[in-house]
Specification:
The chain is α/β, with parallel strands linked by helices. 33% of the residues lie in helices and 25% in strands. The chain has ten helices and twelve strands. The strands form three sheets. The protein has a six-stranded mixed beta sheet with strand order 6-7-8-3-9-10, with helices on both faces. Strand 4 and strand 5 form a beta hairpin. Helix 5 packs across helix 6. The N and C termini lie far apart (50 Å).
Length: 264
């Protein structure tokens, strides 16, 4: 379980995140949704210990992530940020190998090599593993970054917009892989998502944020309602049930000016 207790973060001016008190259940896929500037990425990076809160405590799997030793935290929770800065002359395999550092200390064993190959295969990068990062498309690099995080083999995986640079086919493939990882390997995957329908289809639990606060959280059926989405996004989103899934038709809204919609 991930537990946040009165967590706050203050920035210049009047910008403030929190206080956030929340329990995220163990196991499955959890999506953080909400408008831009809601604080989703900030909360995720605080959970992943990449950003220190100004107040409150954060526990992941019973571990106080901002008080425990770094090596212990790195074996419990892994995180992929939106922006990643790696030397472009690394190969895919070398990049993914960084995920094993908390376990190997830089001295890869055969077990580590097997884990690296497993992550590369899982994300469909086998034919690309000897290519340099600057020889890849944005989507291929994104899959390599996710493979690196998966290779870290933690019980808790945090992903900030994992679908960045991915087209429709690879977005679906990525989410299907993450779904399998969560279900078959009993991982807890928490990810920031912009597309509410991807969140609805692939998540077990959804957390809605707005203006630095958690506005709502619950199951997909509890969050994917016209009232909840209107509170989050200030827009009417009709909900339709298609093959048992609650999907939001936000692609066009009757509230938009008619000139915004192409004729025909």
């Amino acid at each position: 379980m991930i537990r946040l207790s009165d967590v706050t973060k203050r920035y210049a001016g009047e910008t403030e995140i929190g206080p956030v008190s929340l329990e995220i259940p163990k196991g499955g896929v959890v999506s953080l949704i909400g408008p831009n500037g809601a604080g989703k990425s900030t909360v995720l990076t605080m959970i992943g210990r990449l950003l220190a809160p100004d107040g409150g405590t954060i526990e992941v799997g019973g571990l106080d992530v901002h008080a425990a030793p770094s090596k212990q935290v790195a074996k419990t929770v892994s995180i992929l940020r939106q922006e990643n800065h790696f030397v472009t002359r690394l190969t895919v395999r070398q990049l993914v190998g960084f995920g094993r550092y908390p376990h190997s200390g830089g001295r890869l064993t055969q077990h580590d090599e097997d884990k690296i190959s497993e992550a590369i295969d899982f994300l469909g990068l086998t034919d690309l593993e000897q290519r340099f990062l600057d020889q890849l498309s944005g989507g291929q690099r994104q899959r390599a970054y996710v493979a690196m995080v998966i290779c870290q083999d933690t019980d808790y995986v945090l992903l900030d917009e994992p679908l960045n640079n991915l087209d429709m086919k690879h977005s679906i493939s990525m989410l299907q892989h993450l779904r399998v990882i969560a279900t078959e390997l009993d991982k807890t995957i928490v990810m920031v998502m912009h597309d509410i329908n991807f969140a609805a289809v692939y998540s077990d639990y959804i957390i809605g944020m707005r203006e630095g606060k958690v506005l709502c959280h619950g199951t997909v059926d509890e969050i994917m309602t016209e009232q909840r989405l209107a509170e989050l996004y200030d827009i009417y989103v009709p909900i339709h049930v298609i093959e048992g899934r609650r999907l939001g038709m936000y692609y066009w809204s009757p509230e938009l000016p008619k000139r915004a919609v192409p004729a025909g």
